[in-house]
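hiii, so i know i said id send this last week but things got crazy w the move. better late than never?? heres the sequnce for the chain we talked about at the cafe, plus the structure i predicted for it. fair warning i was half asleep when i ran it
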Amino acid sequence: MYFLMAAFVFLAGCSKENRSVTDINNRVQNPQGNLESQQASEEKQEEKEIQEEKETQGDQGEQRTVEKVTALETNVSDGWNELDPSETEDEKKELLTLDQVLELSRKEKLDWSDFDGYTYEDVGFGLCIHMYDIDAHFYLLVGGTGEGEPMYVHLVSAREKEKFIDLASQDVGEEEVEDFILENKGTSYRVSIFAHVKEIKQDGILISSDTDEFPGVFFVTGVRDAMSDEEFWKLKGGMHFRILMEDMNRKNVENDNLAEYRAKEMVLLSDDEDFGQEDILLLDAPELELNNPLTSFYDPYIVQSGSYTWTVEENGEEKQMVACGASPLDEAGLKKEKLKIPNYSTADGVMNSFPYLYSTKIQPDILTLRQWNIADRGDNQAKEEQITVYYGKTSIVELQRDKIYEFTAEWLKRNLPENKFYAEVSYTVATE
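okay and structure toks below
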């Protein structure tokens, strides 16, 4: 019996061993079949990974499509739309001004670091040359190695490029730079209009005017400097605003040769402005009233009209009155008491211009400000430093110290059915 059991165990072990050997032999003798099986498994895994990748790309493509459509809906091109305020705040640069140039002219030596923080264009070939755009009349060229003292710092006339003065010269100081500016500065033209954003670019915005008296599409730079950061990050296509901008007297080649302007002030519009006009019929030229908006005291500066043409409708007929006043630079036309412009300082320095509240009993449709230096008083041939036209009713004007202003208010004839008059009136104001 023990013999029979031993024989059974022996035969069973041999059978198991034979099956193991057979499996091994099959694998050795048929390697192609096993390789195909392994490849099939790998191919399935690869197909699975490809499918997952396609699904992921599809989601990303769909997301990009949504972003593109959103950009088109707001007419915002790539650029500011992708910026994060927290990432770009430190990179914000200022436009160089003539006042800052005069400050630089007071320094005994200039260094490249003196120009840090100002917007420039690199126009050098080999030599480091930075061009700082200032306004329609001047730009600054700084040349050298880019370190230490520049080789030259040229304040250049934009109209006559062969005219310049070198701030890096030992013979040039603030007085010489002021004389150069006065000799070569033309009249600055500014307009204030209602408009809306047409498209946002990397270096500016395209705007479309909403002002009938000043129609068109314009390319505007300097927007970042003309509005608060909070409003800047709200800017998008279709947004309406009032903008005060300076004519740069050139076309922007990269933007269909549109007239180029530089933003000076830009305020987003939310509610209609309330001018609190009296419901009266004006039969004669009203007084001009200026108020300091930063004081708690009501102390208006009142100016009587000078020259005017006033037309009133009575019983279906138009009656016109005409008055000829003195020239704005004539002593006889100036009020003895000058308007005192506050001397306020900000984190960026002393304010060069100051906003004043402007009002008449009925606000004019167009207000034109012509500005001269107080030193031009008595010289009727002197050229205006600046001309600013405010289109549409406005309540704030920008004034500077030691200037003479002629305010020309216009009430348009097209509003005759409502106002029962149309007119053009001038006022003269001297500041100190």
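btw The mean pLDDT is 81. thought thatd interest u
miss u guys!!
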